[in-house]
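If you are new to this repository, start here. Below is one unmodified record pulled from the training split, so you can see the exact layout before writing a loader.
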Amino acid sequence: MRTLVATALSNAKGKDIFCKANKVTDQHVRTIRNTDRKLLEEAGFTFIKMLSLEYPNVRGYAVFFEGHYDEMVKALKLVEKGY
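And here is the target side for that same chain:
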């Protein structure tokens, strides 16, 4: 099962603007934002690139966790502790 965690769009300055899924807390998004992407991928997260066919400047990605929400919370706690 794949769980949607958040979507992110890049603004003009190159910063990612996150929109979280309903069950995901602000603390979870903060942890994802502040953690290296490679480490998150090792913990079970997947990043899928998104782009707009109508607007070439609009780019972003969706963040998924390969598992259930409960497993994601456990994985994020391990990431916060540094594995």
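Two things worth knowing about this chain: The CA atoms of residues 60 and 72 lie 22 Å apart. Helices lie at 26-34, 37-42, 69-81.
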